[in-house]
Specification:
heterodimer, A: 2 strands, B: mainly alpha
Chain lengths: 316, 329
């Protein structure tokens, strides 16, 4: 156990050093990088991916994956618009209902995976299509605009000089770190991913653990969806397309093993910041969005190659 | 590898057990029945569904999806997945069209995409097999590399002025469009080869139980690379058929194509746990899905619902597959 802990800390130390180097390089490259305005804006931009990545860490630690998060985000955005604009519900009620719907989407993923023993990859690939399809079908490519001014506080406003969604992200980072690191639920999560059969025989509620985690994954994707709508002031059915790539890259970069059983929230946060710094650096040096996703794809593959070689060293 | 959670059900190669053989062919009869039923019902509601143009569109216009699904089926039978196939087809179609309009010999414009497909996917297969990276992660990374790279390079510019003798998908033989010939002949060849060749059995064995295959002396790593290379070749053929369908090539990734190809394979009876399935099923499923997409138009249902139908189809097939496995246990 202590050996595992040490190797985890080592990965995070390497990551932290790498992050400092990248930040230093960016600072020397562009004098616009280390301004408070830029850093806070980057924090705003990474909040949605960050929220989803926190729970994705739990998902991947159990040995699973959730490819449907981007579609759940899009569906939540559309439902928010429908509940508020078409059904005339008060906006706070619409927000809560949309997030609850996202949680149900996650719960359905969890039920397919635990009750029917469908591998998480294929279950969430199917719901990726299903939830995005529902978003497209319900919206019929119509967008909803004209939200009241107070709603934009969530995505565009600030509290004590810091973007609102960064507070939310910060609070959830603390909660996720405590739950994964210090509670019996966290231990059950690791045990499920390290050796599922063993965990079952030890009396751990493997299915219950997974069900809760996939539901939480849907809930945070929904919360991220509401924040997304507030940030860009409109709803569209293609919101969050490809979100799973950013989220999984941040988690894997953060040292969580794709085979389950290993990973920490601190690692995910470091991976997230590193990825956002990379995106920002590329943007500042004039690379367009399409060039950026090429780099993110490369980073994902390289990170996992590195972590595989690294962990084999540790084992051998 | 796709079963990161423990496989609760024992896995066996299909052709060896009569029960499984019936189950596997059952899927093909169900699909055939579904296609016939769909045609009867929709043409009853709207007779124009059976118009020559629409029939040609369903079969010839979607044959490239069936061709790509052949390669995808091999990949899934061997226990892996590829979510980058849509992006790869987009890139290969652009390469093919660029060669054709820049005065290179036509046969090169047809051949190069196939070769590039083989090389790229052999690389993907090598990462998966030798570095033991899950296929979902490698291909998710490849998806964004290929897609982002393509748009960065072409900026989505259309390729126009394609030479007439390059447009192979518009050729006809005995009055039947060439994509249909490609679809039927390739499906038959691969179905025969999967069933009777040693390597076909190897693919089933790897997907069925990789450790048992290793113990039986199968070179799992090399075979995985070959499976991905074959998949790349089929993606190349699909890309040429796709590129030559119209008079222009859009130089972008066809939206949602990877999901449509995976849907065809999975709904065609290729088990997502690996080890079972046939390419006849995947081709039938590709036709069924094309017919569903077309019938939405003729039934006056908004095309925006198509993707939910796709998701539901995958879910229902997968749940039925899991239930069938439990019964056969």
């Amino acid at each position: 156990m202590t050996a595992t802990l040490r190797s985890l800390l080592r990965h995070e130390t390497i990551l932290a050093i790498l992050l400092v180097l990248v930040l230093a390089a960016l600072a020397t490259q562009s004098d616009r990088f280390f301004t408070t305005a830029n850093l806070l804006n980057q924090g705003r931009l990474m909040a949605e991916v960050g929220l989803v990545a926190l729970v994705m860490t739990f998902v991947i630690v159990t040995g699973g994956i959730d490819l449907s998060v981007g579609s759940i985000l899009g569906l939540t955005a559309i439902l928010l618009g429908v509940f508020w604009h078409n059904l005339g519900l008060p906006l706070p009620v619409a927000m809560v209902l949309a997030i609850v719907a996202a949680g149900i989407g996650g719960l359905i993923n969890g039920l397919i995976i635990t009750r029917f023993k469908v591998p998480p990859l294929i279950a969430t690939l199917a719901t990726l299509a299903l939830y995005r399809g529902l978003a497209e079908g319900i919206s019929q490519a119509r967008s909803v605009r004209g939200y009241p001014e107070w709603f934009f506080v969530l995505g565009q406003g600030e509290v004590l000089g810091v973007p609102t969604q960064l507070w939310i992200l910060g609070a959830l980072v603390v909660i996720a770190a405590v739950v994964l690191g210090l509670t019996t639920f966290g231990r059950a999560t690791y045990a499920t991913g390290a050796n599922e059969t063993g965990a079952r025989f030890s009396g751990i509620g493997v299915d219950r653990t997974k069900l809760l985690i996939y539901t939480a994954s849907g809930l945070v994707a929904g919360l991220a969806g509401v924040i997304f709508v507030s940030r860009v002031s409109t709803t569209r059915s293609d919101m969050g397309t490809g979100l799973e790539l950013d989220v999984i890259t941040a988690v894997v970069l953060g040292g969580t093993s794709i085979f389950g059983g290993r990973g920490t929230i601190i690692g995910t946060v470091l991976g997230l910041i590193l990825m956002q710094a990379l995106k920002n650096g590329l943007a500042l040096s004039g690379v367009k969005g399409d060039g950026t996703i090429v780099v993110i794809g490369l980073v994902l593959i390289l990170a996992i190659v590195a972590s595989n070689l690294f962990s084999r060293e540790g084992d051998g | 590898m796709m079963t990161a959670s423990s496989p609760a059900v024992p896995r066996t190669a299909p052709a060896m057990r009569p029960m499984k053989r019936i189950a596997a062919y059952g899927q093909e009869f169900i699909l055939l029945g579904a296609i016939v039923a769909l045609f009867v019902v929709v043409s009853f509601v709207n007779p124009r569904f059976l118009g020559a143009n629409n029939i040609s569109n369903i079969f010839a216009g979607n044959a490239y999806i069936a061709v790509a699904a052949i390669g995808m089926s091999l990949v899934i039978i061997s226990g892996h997945i590829d979510v980058a196939v849509g992006s790869l087809i987009g890139v290969l179609a652009t390469i093919s069209g660029t060669l054709a309009v820049n005065g290179y010999p036509i046969w090169l414009a047809w051949l190069v995409p196939v070769l590039v497909g083989i090389v790229v996917n052999a690389g993907v297969g090598a990462l998966i097999a030798y570095l033991r990276i899950p296929s979902i992660v490698v291909t998710l990374g490849m998806l964004s590399i290929l897609k982002g790279g393509l748009i960065s390079v072409t900026a989505g510019a259309w390729i126009t002025n394609l030479p007439a003798d390059y447009l192979i998908a518009q050729f006809r033989l005995f009055g039947i469009p060439s994509p249909v010939w490609f679809m039927v002949i390739l499906t038959a060849l691969v179905a025969f080869w999967m069933r009777y060749s040693g390597f076909g059995r190897t693919i089933y064995a790897i997907g069925g139980n990789v450790e048992a295959a290793r113990v039986a002396g199968i070179q799992v790593e090399r075979s995985t690379v070959i499976v991905f290379a074959i998949h790349g070749a089929f993606a190349g053929i699909a890309a040429v058929l796709f590129a030559t369908q119209l008079q222009v090539i859009q130089s972008t990734v066809p939206p949602n194509l990877e999901l449509t190809v995976i849907t065809a394979s999975v709904v065609g009876g290729v088990s997502i746990l690996g080890g079972t399935g046939t390419v006849i099923g995947s081709t039938l499923a590709a036709i069924l899905f094309a017919a569903i997409a077309s019938s939405l138009i003729f039934l006056n249902v908004s095309a925006y619902w198509l993707r939910s139908v796709q998701g539901l189809l995958i879910l229902i097939t997968v749940l039925a597959d899991m239930a069938r496995r439990r019964r056969l246990r």
